[in-house]
Design brief:
The chain is mainly β and about 170 residues long. It has a domain at about 55-130 and about 135-165: Metal Binding Protein, Guanine Nucleotide Exchange Factor, Chain A, CATH 2.170.150. About 5% of the residues lie in helices and about 25% in strands. It has one helix at about 55-70; strands spanning about 80-85, 90-95, 100, 105-110, 115-125, 135-140, 150-155, 160, 165. The strands form two sheets. The chain has a six-stranded antiparallel sheet with strand order 3-4-8-7-6-5, with no helix packed on it. Strands 2-1-9 form a three-stranded antiparallel sheet, with no helix packed on it.
């Protein structure tokens, strides 16, 4: 241990410096003036606008998503309950979905993005595999990280339940 520090055996993780002659502890900010620009200083303290910031970008991106990714309903309204992302890599997997009526963490959609459907094994909700269950499901996985995000039913509806939601 350094000669300028004393450490109590009971409190090994506490730093307790001992200030002796010749040791000077100084703050990182030596002088701070909390007042703003004064009259007559002009614009020298005013920050310039960031040349990489586009204040219109969010509105343009929203319009592009509405035009390209959202399908209109019967009333010609393009809406969604949420944008869904993969929990493993945050890749967007669904831009237009509907929240389940009973289970708030489940969603259904007719279209997904950045996903693959594993049709090699049909899954069933039946408890007994010997039982003939006509409804079959297929695993839906994130294309980027291969995380399971939901199921595809025989009617072509995606049931997404292992996702992160961004409410629209």
């Amino acid at each position: 241990m350094a000669a300028s520090m004393e450490v109590d055996d009971d409190e090994e993780d506490d730093w307790n410096p001992v200030v002796k002659p010749g040791v000077v502890l100084r703050p990182h900010v030596l002088q701070w003036n909390g007042t703003g620009p004064k009259e007559g200083q002009g614009d020298r303290d005013v920050l310039e606008a960031d040349p990489l910031h586009d204040p219109e970008a969010d509105d343009e991106d929203q319009k592009w998503v509405e035009d390209q990714l959202l399908q209109p309903d019967q009333s010609n309204v393009r809406s969604t309950d949420a944008v869904l992302n993969c929990p493993g890599c945050f890749t967007p997997v669904c831009y237009q979905c509907q929240r389940h009526e009973r289970y708030s963490n489940q969603w259904r959609a007719s279209d997904v993005r950045n996903c693959t459907v594993d049709r090699s094994i049909a899954l069933s909700m039946a408890k007994d595999r010997t039982e003939d269950d006509p409804s079959k499901y297929y695993a839906v996985r994130c294309e980027t990280c291969k995380a399971d995000v939901g199921l595809l039913d025989m009617d072509g509806i995606f049931h997404l339940f292992h996702v992160l939601e961004s409410l629209a």
